[in-house]
Amino acid sequence: MVRKGKVRTASLEQDRMSMTNVLRNIIKVTLATALCVMLGAGAGAAKPKVSVKNKTYEVDATSVQGLKQQMKQRGPNGYWAYTDWYVRWSGSCALSVEITYTMPKHKNEGKMDAATRKSWKAMVSALKAHEEKHGAHGVQAAREIEQTRCANGDAVIKKWNKQDEVLDKRTRHGATEGVVLN
Question: What are the strands, taking DSSP E only, across the chain?
Fold first, then answer.
């Protein structure tokens, strides 16, 4: 009987050590998983697939006033530029975002005088940066939908559409960010 007790005691000690190791491993795995999730690399945290299309419409005016007039007439929906984003998701919550940027493109910038060309290039650069903020809203919407496992997707889309409106109102469609021709 004494031997059994010793064996049993040794077995309890081994069980205790084994449980300690198991707990250590569980803690390590939990911490590693938490770190991966915080860094966005966790299992099931696949990023939405993003595809980008760039469209242009042509302008050929050589004066500031002519450029403004042509962009208003030829631009999408009467704007100088426009960003469309569409978030799609499947029943398994696989998400994709399609972003389409429509920007003006000058047929021959060399025909503009130096001051107008400089203003044009600065405006186009600022306009692209502004439109990319709208595109980022689409990506943010997809990420938020993914975080909720595709619950309330329509509400999330509405929220980020509203953010597009807020951005345009706050920046006067990019004017405060350099989207000006003068």
Answer: 49-59, 82-89, 95-106
Contacts for 16 with CB less than 8 Å, ≥ 6 apart: none
Residues 6+ apart with CB under 8 A from 155: none
Name the amino acid, one letter, at 56.
T
Q: In whole angstroms, what is the distance from residue 101 CA to residue 50 CA?
A: 13
The amino acid at residue 174 is: G
pLDDT tens profile 29-88: 333 333 334 444 334 456 899 999 999 999 999 999 999 999 999 999 999 999 999 999
Q: Would the pTM of this model clear 0.90, i.e. be above it?
A: no
Closest CA to 167 of 122, 136, 124: 136
Query: Residue 67 CB: number of other CB atoms within 10 A?
Result: 22
* 138: its two tokens: 């689409």
Count of residues in the chain: 182
Q: State how far the Cα of 45 lies from the Cα of 140, in Å rounded to an integer.
A: 14
∠ CA 64-130-144, rounded to 5°: 160
